[in-house]
């Protein structure tokens, strides 16, 4: 199913000294420095010169990944754009979310060794793990992503799964997930975790079961409830999970493959409607699993569920943090600290001029002062369409600071 099914990760269906402070009013004009811009060089660092999906039965690979320890950032960015295009045509947002969660959700905080501890390591690409009951249907997600993996060979499966999951959330109107990348893949199926680490949808004691599973991952009650809110996306199909109706008035016409039962009316829109609908329970065509209902029955869970039903911004904030935490569970990163795709501008793209960024005061610069700074900035070769390299402009500011400091010493 192209959805978060009842067999998913969530209940189975996740000093400088004050003397150096200066203002542009007291600083020397840049125009007075044009004849001595070479001085800035004193402060400016100089530039220095897995195998294919080839199983005959269901089309996925049990071949080790190519020997690359981490993903290439540029390839990851390109892969993200390809995933966005895939989502526009296949409406596969829910199943991609589920894929990322199930790869990460096998983590056991009580096991220190990698990869025995499980987690986001790409092991879900192997048949032995795909056959786990909680992973029913996820081979379809793998098939969707395999052409992208083949196109970008320097992207690990572990990163690709988590990238797809976060992108799917964002593309359905959800929050921006503060993701990091650089996850290392396991090399073979013998490194897959044993079955039984993912949640069930209808255990005898839903609250206790949820805590057993998610506490083992190092998650808390707030994170359990926040992650449950992703059921605003997707459908449960009885042929895969044993839960839900074959179809409802909300799912009989798709988009994507029709059928299944959704938790919400707009099951391809990420919002807080899951909590509202579970609380009201007025529509028989909307799915409520035992692990959904318990969110408003358990006293601790209920605090967060009630909050999220009333405050979507609070839900988005907590969900983004919980999703990012989940996506890192058990992962081994190279570099060890990982990297973000959004930390800096793309290569070759200098920083745009923003006058207020260079103010040392707490107050916003006046429009007149902004225009004066812009004029001086343009006088040394910058413009809104042709920005200076950020380190060049920054070092001009350093020159001004030094000269202003020297001037104040002389005058004093």
TrEMBL record:
Reaction(s) this enzyme catalyzes, per UniProt: L-ascorbate + H2O2 = L-dehydroascorbate + 2 H2O; 2 a phenolic donor + H2O2 = 2 a phenolic radical donor + 2 H2O
Domain Plant heme peroxidase family profile: 96-349
Major location category of this protein: plastid
Segments traversing the membrane: 392-411
GO molecular function: heme binding; L-ascorbate peroxidase activity; lactoperoxidase activity; metal ion binding
Stored PROSITE patterns: PEROXIDASE_1, PEROXIDASE_4
Ranges for region Disordered: 230-258
Keyword Transmembrane helix: yes
Superkingdom assignment: Eukaryota
Gene Ontology cellular component terms for the protein in this record: chloroplast
Localization annotation: Plastid, Chloroplast
Essential cofactor(s): heme b
InterPro entries registered for this protein in UniProt: Ccp1-like (IPR044831), Haem_peroxidase (IPR002016), Haem_peroxidase_sf (IPR010255), Peroxidase_I (IPR002207), Peroxidases_heam-ligand_BS (IPR019793)
Presence of keyword Membrane: yes
Any one GO BP annotation for this protein: cellular response to oxidative stress
Ranges annotated as biased composition (Basic and acidic residues): 236-252
CDD domains for this protein: ascorbate_peroxidase
Pfam families: peroxidase
Keywords, sorted A to Z: Calcium, Chloroplast, Heme, Hydrogen peroxide, Iron, Membrane, Metal-binding, Oxidoreductase, Peroxidase, Plastid, Potassium, Transit peptide, Transmembrane, Transmembrane helix
SUPFAM superfamilies xrefs: Heme-dependent peroxidases
Function field: Plays a key role in hydrogen peroxide removal.
Family recorded in the similarity comment: Belongs to the peroxidase family. Ascorbate peroxidase subfamily.
Protein name: Probable L-ascorbate peroxidase 6, chloroplastic isoform X1
Organism: Sesamum indicum
Gene (UniProt): LOC105155321
């Amino acid at each position: 199913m192209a959805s978060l099914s009842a067999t998913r990760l969530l209940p189975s269906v996740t000093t400088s000294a004050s003397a150096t402070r200066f203002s542009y009013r007291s600083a020397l004009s840049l125009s007075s420095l044009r004849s001595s811009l070479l001085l800035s060089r004193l402060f400016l660092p100089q530039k220095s010169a897995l195998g294919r999906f080839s199983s005959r039965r269901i089309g996925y690979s049990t071949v080790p990944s190519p020997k690359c320890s981490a993903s290439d950032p540029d390839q990851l960015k390109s892969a993200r754009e390809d995933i966005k295009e895939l989502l526009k045509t296949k409406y596969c947002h829910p199943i991609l979310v589920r894929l990322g969660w199930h790869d990460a959700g096998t983590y056991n905080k009580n096991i220190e060794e990698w990869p025995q501890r499980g987690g986001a390591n790409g092991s879900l690409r192997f048949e032995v793990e795909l056959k786990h009951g909680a992973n029913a249907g996820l081979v379809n997600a793998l098939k969707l992503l395999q052409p992208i993996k083949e196109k970008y060979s320097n992207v690990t499966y572990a990163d690709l799964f988590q990238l797809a999951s976060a992108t799917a959330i964002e593309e359905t109107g959800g929050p921006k997930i503060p993701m990091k990348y650089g996850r290392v893949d396991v090399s073979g199926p013998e490194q897959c975790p044993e079955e039984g680490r993912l949640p069930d949808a209808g255990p005898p004691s839903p609250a206790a079961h949820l805590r057993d599973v998610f506490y083992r991952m190092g998650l808390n009650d707030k994170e359990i409830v926040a992650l449950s809110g992703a059921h605003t996306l997707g459908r449960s199909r009885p042929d895969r999970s044993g839960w839900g109706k074959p179809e409802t008035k909300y799912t009989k016409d798709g988009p994507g493959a029709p059928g299944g039962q959704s938790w919400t009316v707009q099951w391809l829109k990420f919002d807080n409607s899951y909590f509202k609908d579970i609380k009201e329970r007025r529509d028989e065509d909307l799915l409520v699993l035992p692990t959904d209902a318990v969110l408003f029955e358990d006293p601790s869970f209920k605090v967060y569920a009630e909050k999220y039903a009333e405050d979507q911004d609070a839900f988005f904030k907590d969900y983004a943090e919980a999703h990012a935490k989940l996506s890192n569970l058990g992962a081994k990163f190279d570099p060890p600290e990982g990297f973000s795709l959004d930390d800096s501008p793309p290569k070759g793209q200098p920083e745009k001029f923003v006058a207020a960024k260079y103010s040392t005061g707490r107050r916003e610069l006046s429009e007149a002062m902004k225009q004066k700074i812009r004029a001086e900035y343009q006088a040394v070769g910058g413009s809104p369409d042709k920005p200076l390299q950020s380190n060049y402009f920054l070092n001009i500011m350093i020159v001004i600071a030094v000269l202003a400091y020297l001037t104040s010493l002389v005058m004093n």
